[in-house]
Amino acid sequence: MSGSTPAFVALAAAMAQALAILVGVVLLAAVMTVVERRLLGLWQDRHGPNRVGPAGSLQLVADMIKILFKEDWIPPFADRPLFVLAPVIAMASLLLSFMIIPLTPTWGVADWHIGLLFFFAMAGINVYAVLLGGWSSGNKYALLGAMRATAQTLSYEVFMGLSLMGVVALAGSFNLREIVAAQQGLWFIVPQFLGFCTFLVAGVAVTHRHPFDQPEAEQELADGYHIEYSGMKFGMFFIGEYIGMVLVSALIVTLFFGGWLGPWLPPFAWFALKTGALLVLFVLLRAALPRPRHDHVMSFGWRVCLPLTLINLLVTGAAILWLSPATD
Amino acid sequence: MELAFYASGLVAVLATLRVITSTNPIHALLYLIVSLLAVAMVFFALGAPFAGALEVIVYAGAIMVLFVFVVMMLNLKETVTAQERAWLGPRTWAGPSLLAAVLLVVLIAVLWRGDIGRVIAGDTLTAQAVGTVLFGPWLLVVELAAVLLLAALVTASHVGRSASRPPDDGSDGA
Asked: What phi, psi does A262 have (nearest 5°)?
């Protein structure tokens, strides 16, 4: 029985930590679905869901019961294996990305030197969820939604990667812990303000959040790529979107707002506060902005954001070379 | 790490076999994606996570998305499945696989007689090390690749421009 060796204890602690982060993220994403509706109600001067339980606090439970017991219908004209696979990819690829995010100096799942690249890889895989979901449904609206989502995600992923290269160059590492450590003196939002703006736009676009939710525009596409989904499969797409939101918020906090760094409060409190503030910003964006046309979204990405990130990268590189002491 | 290497190598080979034998184009492409992911895992197992991550980002995450995208747009029907099935007859694959088998024997023989002492070690390369090598001794190759990509970009932009219509002035007519 090796139950008490230090290696085993360390292993068990790491696994427990990973599990806690996983459960915490899924729960937070689920809670966000209700928080978002309450906040939208607040900002749009209406009540929002306030009927279930005291002050609407049990709305989440009601939603869960509803979605779990709904009929899980697979259309006869659908490509069955892909139809089932798509929501799994949607949720799993985003959940896996949380592996690289350090919550506090001691909490986090993986400490990799390719950290940020892993997020890009998972974001790349995540495209298939929408693509396969839309195609396998055998529905024209779903296919149109998938088309839009793919074109949009591919375009925005191009400069999403580039927008973070300034941060990577300043920190000298892809490792998120080292990136946080490099922000001891100054958060990267100051020297990398353009990078922050473009990454925020790209993050909203890649998670198909409003105002970049043309793939699921109700008026035009009757819900887009997940129109044929019901029950828990739809739930996985739905929660996946909120997981994406939490993921992008946590990434922005880690990359631009110094992660857990901050005075007085414990590290986790800072991390949670900053992430929460960004989540509220996501909701505010949805509450405040109209939905632009799809071709406007595409041309905005290619004509405004991509040149901005390139300029940012050039200036950052020049500044680093200018300021660094001459070697040899 | 050796186990991971052989396991993902096996997955890559099996998935690639299914790419060839699958009659549904989309399913074949998905197997190709699985194969690419398995190759990325091979890189991880060999201690080159940077190459593995790039493999996923570039091949599985970008190029294959375009493949799947295009095939979906083509709206292929049952005729294609029948065509694929016809191509899988022994008359079609017997010749090429015989030739490929000869090459395989040669490859195995070379590998067998080669440096057998090398084992899969746990040495992990960092992204920094890869970058230093790329922009040090291999700078010329990197620059040439960049020029090639630029040429491809210019070509694509030239081919994609329609001759009948004046170039878009940015005001995207609705």
From this structure: 160, 155
